[in-house]
Amino acid sequence: MRVLSVVALLALALACRGLRQFLVIVLTHDRPDGLQRLLEGLSKADYTGAREVDIKIRIDRRTDGGVDGSVVSLAERLHWRHGRKLVHVTEANENIVGQWLNGTAGVLDEYERFIVIEDDIEVDSLYFQWLVASIRRYSDFARLAGITLHRDHTNAVVDERKHSIGIPRRFPVYLYRHPSSWAMSPTPRVWREFLAWAHAAYARNGGISPVAPGLESTYYYRSHIAEGRTQSMWSMWFIHYCHEHGLYTLYPNYPNKGGLAINNRMKGVHFDRKYNAPETMAELPFDESRWYPAPGQTPLVGWQGLISGFV
Question: In order of start, what are the domains of the chain with their CATH numbers?
């Protein structure tokens, strides 16, 4: 299969540069059921052709300094046969902002690419093959913020979220201005620049208020400010950065409204209870040539959910 040869060629090129190929970063706290489901899916995924795929399980402490013993036990018991396994317990509670910003700092000094997956996510067995093929396919697009495994069909603009962006099915992927925080692999150059900007902003006593006018996410972030819990919404920083720099994120758009990852919406910092909002995995075509539109036919989708052009 051509996809497998792409993975193998990428591994060979990275070996010559002295970089490890890929790191899966799992962010977890106190949801052992979700973590177990995610680790099982990651372990069973197809990594054929890869030289090594390492995994780092990052466990955040509670606010009282304690740590969930069942989560630590799951991480330590995991037999990871695809590469190295690393288990890291934070020194103090970092919440989701610290998990993302601290947990990815320095990673690109050792790895060519990485993906961050929180413990309420579930992945498809072909997620890695699709991700590597997508990286290669869209590596020349200068405004690519990253690639997500999750499909987003909601409108980012206030008062419009009830309307689906409705990308036609003839486009199996699309580039959307709104970035994703669910199973996302950022573009290395963009992520280095974003981290430098974000850490500098934090160093200035909190720096700026990272909002993007007119977006539903800004409404939620301002409610977080009023409630004193902005540390639970790291994504607003990346949304603001992408808004200011005109960046896009690649999303899957396959039949049955599926992606290469689903969010189980478990109770945690994002949801105050378990939401019954079932999602489905993508039904990837057997023929990899149908995974993407023809060259020059990938839609560019604006904040309002409208196609503004093609690349």
Answer: 2-310 (3.90.550.10)
CB 253 within 8 A of CB 151: yes
Does 128 have pLDDT greater than 70? yes
Q: Enumerate residues 6+ apart whose C-beta is below 8 A from 203.
A: none
CA dist 208 and 237 (Å) reads 10
Q: Up-side HSE of residue 97: CA atoms within 13 Å toward CB?
A: 16
* 3-class secondary structure per residue, 205-268: CCCCCCCCCCEHHHHHHHHHHHHCCHHHCCHHHHHHHHHHHCCEEEEECEHHHEECEEECCCCC
What is the pTM (predicted TM-score) of this model? 0.89
Residue 214, classified by CB atoms within 10 Å of its CB into exposed (0-12), middle (13-18) or buried (19+), is middle
The pairing of strands 144-148 and 184-186 is: antiparallel
Q: Per residue in 259-292, pLDDT tens?
A: 999 998 655 555 555 555 567 888 888 888 899 9
